[in-house]
Amino acid sequence: MNRKILSLAIITLTLAAWLILPGTFQAAPAPEPNISVVGYFGTDKAQRGRPLQVSMVIDIPSGYHINSSKPLESYLIATSLKVDAPSGVRVGPISYPRALLKSFKFSEKQLSVYEGQARVRFSVTVPANYSGGSLELKARVRLQSCNDEVCFPPKTYDKEMRIDVVAATDAVKATNGWAFRR
């Protein structure tokens, strides 16, 4: 008799657990992407009085995207770059890459996004009378990443970039050409 009651209790508990628990299990949320942001100079040294090309390269893992600099929905956070330079150093206009128009499950409208790799470019000009032997730029990239189903909270990437400064007549070598191609 005790054995029948025990067996019945086990079967009842197992059945109850099977009916109740599956509704509480959910798929794990997608992990946030490991986005890389790296700055590159177009030459190995900066010449006084001459413009220097700079590219901030954002690597976006497959299956993810970031909003463009001009998202088409007001609730999305735009990708932006702000550059701080020493006094007298001129920062030129920032050039964002051409965005893709894509459809995603979480939006009825197409969105303006970057996928794969986004290269945000600008130039800096070191004044001819600049007395320092090097130049340090501080770049702040703010972006919001998403996958096909959800967007993640925005993130800010602070990057410091340093380059030696030489006279306008000193030779410099072109570097990182790939980072400046469209």
Write a brief structural summary.
With 182 residues, the chain is mostly beta strands.
Describe this protein's structure.
The chain is mainly beta and 182 residues long. The protein has one domain: Immunoglobulin-like, CATH 2.60.40. 10% of the residues lie in helices and 37% in strands. The chain has 1 helix and 12 strands; from the N terminus they run αββββββββββββ. The protein has one helix at 2-20; strands at residues 36-41, 46-47, 51-59, 65-67, 80-84, 90-91, 100-102, 111-114, 117-125, 134-143, 145-146, 155-166. A hairpin with an 8-residue loop joins β7 (100-102) and β8. Mean pLDDT is 87; it is low at 15-28.
Summarize this structure as a short list of keywords or feature phrases.
four-stranded mixed sheet, 182 residues, mainly beta, 12 strands, four-stranded antiparallel sheet, Immunoglobulin-like
